[in-house]
């Protein structure tokens, strides 16, 4: 069993493995009181006035107390982050990292701006960890790129992947969780989907190009496409045969 888990962990793509590890280590550290959540949460005043810039990152790693909700989010993170990185972003690790960076920036910006709007500022002020929202963003993007996959929710009913975010949003409302957290993830996910998939088809321009300095951080392996076994290929040129 332990060996199977180890193999599963090693086979994860780099971004998924790194994020999942950081989330689990952070949550365990907080549960054991090695790390304090008060040093991790998003606090604009502490970021600006006391230069605690790490809060812009660490608030995405803590998934609160380790309970059933934590297990659900670890499952969503491990599954949909992995599916995106292995399929839609296969051989494009830098682009996938840029997607997460875009999502984190949008989520942080929405929370900061929402905190300054009357009547809703109180709701946004309660959102101090955006890890759940970033996970929900990945679920949203995956559902948009795989809308026709049939799914089942707890064996109760079936639906297509296009409705997965709405099903999870409804489940959050039923169990009494904050709908704002999931809605923020949907906003960030839709912003990325529109700018990356819809807008380029409409205008021929791609606004979310991955910067060269981010591409330099990742050495993407070339995607190797296997030749079908039932297809005959032409023999090599005569020059090549003579050289051999």
What secondary-structure arrangement, pairings included, does this model have?
Blueprint (H helix, E strand, L loop, with lengths): L1 H9 L3 H18 L12 H6 L5 H4 L9 H21 L4 H22 L6 H5 L5 H15 L4 E4 L3 E4 L3 H11 L4 H25 L8 H4 L22 H6 L1
Antiparallel strand pairs: 1-2
Shape: globular
| Separate helix tally | 12
The major β-sheet equals: 2 strands, antiparallel
User: What radius of gyration results from the CA coordinates?
Assistant: 21 Å
Order of helices and strands: HHHHHHHHEEHHHH
Strand content: under 5%
The structure class reads: mainly alpha
Mean pLDDT: 83
Span of the ends, CA to CA: 50 Å
Low-confidence stretches: 222-244
Number of strands: 2
- State the strand order across the main sheet: 1-2
- Share of residues in helices: 55-70%
